[in-house]
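User: Hey, my collaborator sent me this sequence without any context and asked if I could get a structure. I don't really work with proteins. Can you help?
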Amino acid sequence: MSGTETLGGMAEALAAARAVEPTAGDHVAGGHTHESACLNCGTALVGSHCHACGQAAHVHRTLGAFFHDLLHGVFHFEGKIWRTLPLLALQPGKLTREYIDGRRASYVSPIALFLFCVFLMFTTINSLGSSFMPTASTTVDAIAQQQREDLKALEARKATAKDPGEKAEIEGDIADAKASIEGLEKLDTNDLNFNLGDDNTDIEGLKSSPLIYEAVKIWRDNPSLALYKVQTYSYKLSWALIPISVPFLWLLFPFSRRFGLYDHTVFVTYSLCFMTLLAVVTMLAATLNAPWLGVFGLLPPLHMLVQLRGTYALSWFGAWWRTWFLSMFAFTALMLFATLILVEAGG
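Assistant: No problem. I've predicted the 3D structure and written it out in structure-token form, which is a compact way to encode the shape of the chain:
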């Protein structure tokens, strides 16, 4: 993603987040009630905001103030982000319950946080680029380079070998290494990016699902275009994960009168925020070859366990068995989402 595209994506994410979190970035401190009437609707002002339309009493008219508001909206969220993230990571059940029960002034709303997390994840993916998702050609090149280094070592051993039998064995290894390197250099890596043949006979079975058939065909014919389309639709349709996931969570409380679809939607959205941020941290840690990377695999079910218990006031056992089912439901929801992306990419 170029710098211009990154700024454009940030503007898009901020506009969406601001639409659902309208007070983010507004100034509530004293000293901003210079007008006697609201400049938006004309209502007499009492306090720092208009009680009729909600607009801030003082409207900035300087370029510096414009960029200050931009940075304030991105990084500050009126301080809400710094109160929301610790709870999201350590006490997700409390955060979800607080928001559902109406104590919201201190926290970023789930949908605003979700939009920003999704933007951050896809920005990270595009920034890491090929270092995070190596292509078949880069993998083949790395293998060939390693074999060239091994060949040099074999030739050095041959030069110092005195025993005829050992020298003959080394010569055989050298011949094998040269043949392997020659084969790698002739290999058409385009065929490795998607393991399908030159014609359509190997995907004939997919014709019963025309959209998926076309998506697979596009992937085979132009892997780079297919990857671009998958990333684009994944970003644009990321919101679909919420309605896809909510019915599965409802199945864990099908006869509950206390908890309804609204509760489940807030739960799912905050949970997706955590999983998205975890994906960002995992990608960054992977670039550093962190040895403890595998520990991150334990965090999703642990987070779901803690969030279930805190949100729905469950016992540890009640939260535990629901976590097992929720983990399977989450996998199913991801598969449905992947199918949706595949269909859209092939459309």
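In plain terms: The chain has 13 helices and no strands. You can pass these tokens on to your collaborator as they are.
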